Amino acid sequence: MSSEDLRPKVYSVFGAVNQRVPIGTLIILLLLFAIWNGLSRFGIVPDYVLASPASFMESLSEAIRSGELFGHMIASLQRVFVGFTIAMFVAVPTGVLMGWSPSVGRTLNPIVEALRPVSSFAYVPIGMMIFGLGFTLNAFVVYIASFFPILINTIQGVRGTEKRILEFAKLQGARPKSMLFKVALPSALPSILTGLRVGMGIAWMSIIATEMIGAKSGLGFLIYNSAWQLEMGLILVGVMAIAVIGLALNRLFLLIERKALSWRDHLVAG
Description:
The protein is 84% helix and 0% strand. It has twelve helices and no strands. The chain has helices at 3-20, 23-41, 53-66, 68-100, 102-115, 124-131, 135-159, 163-171, 176-214, 219-228, 232-260, 262-269.
């Protein structure tokens, strides 16, 4: 195959990459890799402090081949899924109730504002006393971490419903229940979805830290255990897996937002 035949294919590949990843991002990633490789190649940073690209690739290959990496990834994702799901089913209805009913909001708001600034990791000792070490402790911390971002965004979304729309619905004879489900909730949906996306991000961060203390599996445990064994390449493998999964989860929730809010585009187009 001649170079002329290959040229359109090469251009199409680079064009597809450029559509998905901004060229500036690629340049920064290549620059960071060059710095990393230079620090290792010229011995500026020893391998026991920062693994070289070669050590990283070797550790990555071994972790994939043995199945160790995927096992830890699945363990972390399971804990996040359980804790986040429970938080979602508790925080969204509670937030809707607090945002819709002034009396409920006044009653619960002081409690929420008192507990919200407390770090989820402060509950780890309490969780250890109640649940011991293991799956339930990790899911509990994820629940605490993701609960408040979902709750606050839901409250603000419901309260942010335009008063004139509610007044117009009331003039049309709509009952409070109908106004809540047909006016307030659709109006609050963008804020609720944002809260879910932010909550998932915080949940993912919290599970990694919690697994370093109260788990025998998961990406957090992988990093912590590798540090004790001075396996710097495996530490970077864990960090890479955390970053990739975090990015994938964020993209997933952005996709859900676009699908769930597609009706707004139809309204604008109409």
